[in-house]
Design goal:
Strand 4 and strand 5 form a beta hairpin. The protein is α+β, with helices and mostly antiparallel strands and 234 residues long. The chain has a 6-stranded antiparallel beta barrel. A 5-stranded mixed β-sheet has the order 2-1-3-4-5. It starts with a strand and ends with a strand. The longest helix has 13 residues, at 63-75. The protein has helices at residues 14-23, 36-43, 55-59, 63-75, 104-114, 213-225, and strands spanning 4-9, 28-33, 50-54, 78-84, 89-93, 120-135, 146-154, 157-161, 171-176, 185-193, 203-210, 228-233.
Length: 234
């Protein structure tokens, strides 16, 4: 069985040791960090399949860093861990789950094994709603195009809010109505956010793979005006 890489966000101590002991049975390579900022340093050099977060570490974390953890959990599979004091067993909580399940950690590990490992990078992007038409082939027939909305955007890509079924690594083209040059932009879908997950908009993260210089200049007007830190998968 081949190994895969996971990141564990947990303060040094007995809880971290207990988690590492439990994770040994899954043949995973575990890199430990104390906080979300260290995750980015790791992810620039190495690809990961998921993130595990110690619940007590998260509770003690500042609000701004909690937001980083929430953003990380959108980009990679994530689970929160705690130790049941009566049994000393490790239990997991998925985002939006109130009661830990006995098999949550096993389910999480199985999910991580199925996904293509990814790097995470910091990008500068803005929250900006734009109208977009998605094409799944290069014929660009607007009658067959999928009407959707971009929710946030950067020079490298965007998040598209849509319920239409699309797949990771799928190639698409998008026409952004608000750009002066509305020529289709070729993209690759890097991750998918499915409908029904609590506090998450359904849609896809798209990376621009072919875009004209004039379109990039238009995007610069948006992104330079107001930008926020966010993460992109590679």
């Amino acid at each position: 069985m081949s190994s895969f890489n996971l990141i564990l966000i947990a303060e040094p101590g007995e809880r971290r040791k207990r988690y590492l002991k439990e994770l040994q049975k899954f043949n995973a390579v575990i890199d430990c960090v104390q906080g979300p900022n260290e995750v980015f340093q790791k992810c620039r050099r190495k690809k990961y399949s998921g993130i595990l977060v110690d619940l007590k570490t998260m509770i003690r974390t500042s609000d701004s860093k909690k937001q980083l953890i929430d953003k990380l959990s959108i980009r990679l599979p994530a689970i929160r861990l705690r130790i049941n004091p009566s049994t000393n067993s490790v239990v997991g909580l998925f985002p939006g789950q109130d009661v830990p399940g006995d098999d949550s950690l096993q389910v999480f590990i199985a999910k991580c094994k199925e996904l293509k490992p990814s790097r995470i990078r910091i990008d500068r992007r803005i929250n900006k709603i734009l109208n977009v038409i998605i094409f799944q082939d290069n014929e660009f027939d607007e009658e067959k195009g999928i009407r959707a909305n971009i929710i946030d955007i950067s020079f490298r890509g965007c998040f598209i809010n849509t319920l239409h079924p699309l797949n990771s690594n799928e190639r698409i083209w998008i026409r952004i109505k608000e750009l002066e040059d509305t020529s289709p932009i070729q993209c690759e879908i890097r991750w998918v956010q499915h409908w029904g997950e609590q506090d998450r908009l359904p849609g896809v993260g798209a990376l621009f793979t072919q875009i004209k210089d004039e379109q990039l200049k238009d995007l610069q007007q948006y992104v330079s005006a107001l930008s926020i830190s966010d993460m992109e998968l590679q």
